[in-house]
Each structure stands twice: as structure tokens, then as C-alpha cells.
Amino acid sequence: MSEGSDSLRTSPSVASLSENELPPPLEPPGYVCSLTEELVTKAREELQEKPEWRLRDVQALRDMVRKEYPNLSTSLDDAFLLRFLRARKFDYDRALQLLVNYHSCRRSWPEVFTDLKPSALKDALASGFLTVLPHTDPRGCQILCIRPDRWTPSSYPITENIRAIYLTLEKLIQSEETQDGFPIRIKAVHGVNEPRIFKGIFAIIKPFLKEKIANRFFLHGSDLNSLHTSLPRSILPKEYGGTAGELDITAWNEALLASEEDFVREFCQPVPTCGSIPGGTLLPQGLVSDAQCDDSVRAVKSQLYSCY
């Protein structure tokens, strides 16, 4: 008899165990902080996140979801809920609003979120339309590089580019080091080699933007020295006047494809229709409706993003 068979023979089956002897059901793993001491301090100062209160805050948000939105199909894992608490500096009400808006946006934009997985976006990824640079900026922010000129309209629809952006943002916030909730907080937008008309358009819309948002846009044109005042040459690829070698999209594409199962589990399951959730229950006063989904996340059209 083989060693494996012998093992099967000597191990008691579940059926042979009495009810009191059955092993307890496995519980989902609890939250384990992966932040460095430096980032823990930064989170305390910038996000009001106190390690000693972290799980209490997560439980408070979880209880609010269960009480106010019992039909909302959402993950209630510690790590998932922490995204929204961090994005709203641990303000429970605002974190809950962000969570509901996030799911409303996913339902109201099925052409973007349905079947959102790396293998469904191979053409967009292979085009080099976007990638994430291997080095962070001096603040530790990840840099998302978007190159609109790499998109050929006859190759695939523009919605595939938007899907690729969302896919990338979702992947980025899986890491606590880059996590600040979703929609992700954009720390800076750097436009390089943008058309001249873009500056005129931005000058028109800038007065209507909040000062904090307007101050995060930097249009450099062809002046790479201007870009380097914000993003050092040491972290930029050769294409942007940097010294970090040529821009390589392979590593990031492989990282996304390696996360296929995570995206299938999160985005390829049946999503409840809007009609299955009472409108009054889902969206009380102060929350956006499906039709009012945050338009700002649909307008991602610059070339370099510095994201925290």
C-alpha cells in the first residue's frame, strides 16, 4: 500500500467523528497591518488613523452597513472597509457614503465593471496605454503613467482604456502602502506633451474647480525640466528625461495577470440590479444616485499621475 493510501486509512473521516468532535469552521483571516512604522505615523498624522482604535472603527463601519444597508452586496472584510475609512479620514458617515457610492457607480456603469479582469483587457494592456512605474516618488506615491497616443481607436473601444485604468487602481489599493480608499485620492496630475488647446480648456474650467483640486494639476508641455522639479529624473524612464531606463510595461502587465483570480472573485460574480434594492433604503438624502455616479473618475485623461 502506498504511503498516501496508508495516510488515508489511518486518518479518521469527518463522518466518523461525533458532533462534539467536529473541527470548528474556518473563519476568514483577520486584519494584519503591513505598514511600516513610518507609514503608521503618517497615517496617524494625515488620516487620523490610530492603530489601537483601528479594529473598533472597522467594526463601527461594518455595523452601520448592516443596519442601514442590509441588502448592499459588499465585502465586510477588515481590509476592504479600511480603504473607505482611510479615504475619508475615519469619518464613519463619509466612509459609509463613499462605500455606497462606490457600489452605485459599479452598478450604473456595467460596460466598465462587468467581467473586469486582466485577461479580458489584454489588447489595452499590450498597447502600452497605461502602466505603473517601478519606482515611487519622494513621498512614497505610486506613479501611474497614461499615454493616450498609444491607443488606436480601430483596435478596441475607448471603454477598454477606462476599464484598464480601473483595473490598475484596484490593483494598486490592494497594497496598504498605496491605499487611501477608492475612488483613489489623486495627489498630483502631471501633463506632459499635452496639446496646446488643453491649456486653454483647463484655464476655462480651473475657476470652477476647488482650489485644492486645481492646485494638483501641472501642465508641463515639452518642458521636462519643469516635470523634474516634482518628479526626480532618477525615478522616471528615459522617455520622460529620466535615468531609470526605458519604459517597460511588461512587469506591471504580468502583475495584473497574476491577480486574475482576485478580479474574477470581485468583479465577475452576478451583481444585484438596482431594482433589487429599494431606492429609499440604498440612497438616503445626501448620497448620490446611480445616474449621479462620480463623474470625476470618468475624466482620467492626463499622462502622469502621482497617486497615494
UniProtKB/TrEMBL annotation:
Pfam families: CRAL_TRIO, CRAL_TRIO_N. GO terms for molecular function: phosphatidylinositol bisphosphate binding. It comes from the Eukaryota. Signal peptide: none annotated. SMART domains: CRAL_TRIO_N (SM01100), SEC14 (SM00516). This is Alpha-tocopherol transfer protein-like isoform X2. CDD domains: SEC14 (cd00170).
